[in-house]
Amino acid sequence: PRILVLVSGSGSNLQALIEATRERDYPGQIVAVGSNRPDVLALERAKRAGIETFTVDHQKFGSRDEFDTALKAEIERHSPDVVVLAGFMRILTPGFVNAFRGRMLNIHPSLLPKYTGLNTHQRALDAGDQRHGVSIHFVTEDLDGGPVIAQAEVAIAADDDAQSLAARAQQQEHVLYPIVLRWFCEGRVQLDGEHATFDGTPL
Ligand code: GRF
User: Fold this and answer.
1) Which of this chain's residues are annotated to bind N(1)-(5-phospho-beta-D-ribosyl)glycinamide (predicted)?
2) Distance CA 189, CA 197 (A)
3) Which residues are annotated as a binding site?
4) Ligand 1 centre and the CA of 36: distance in Å?
5) The CATH number of the domain where 39 resides is what?
């Protein structure tokens, strides 16, 4: 399968995916990396790995629809089988999301359905949670609300702040995303209606 990764920032998840997909037996290859921001570290990481990159700068568009139309056209030039959102910080229109339904994944830094949206680490701390974590889900029209495929948990320590907690959660992201993407590439994980399935069994 052909993998296309969308990024907005530092690209540490992208780096983990680059390293995993380099392994000889990995069932997919990253064919392109796209960003909505020029000059981000994630694009540098892709270039260093010899992967094609493109930028569709959202600031140059008058509306979300125009931006999404341009982004979709760029993506389709690469004929991906799966679109992987890795720290991609734009809300996508329903038309865009539905065009890639069942073949677009996102990673979100919380134990969904808790804490959709931003500032998830601080919110987990403020709530006095003992456990926190990360989720990988299919992207649907429901922001951060698509069917969850897999989660990884971390313990919250008494002396954690948002930064220390984020760092611990991100280590889990870098382990989990390559694994889940592998399952997707192998056809083991699918979106069946409103449910994610693993080897045909609803999750
Ligand atoms: C990750 O923590 C992801 O969960 C969140 O944004 C961060 C992206 O980090 N949505 P990176 O760009 O992969 O380093």
Assistant:
1) 11-13
2) 6
3) 11-13, 64, 89-92, 106
4) 14
5) 3.40.50.170
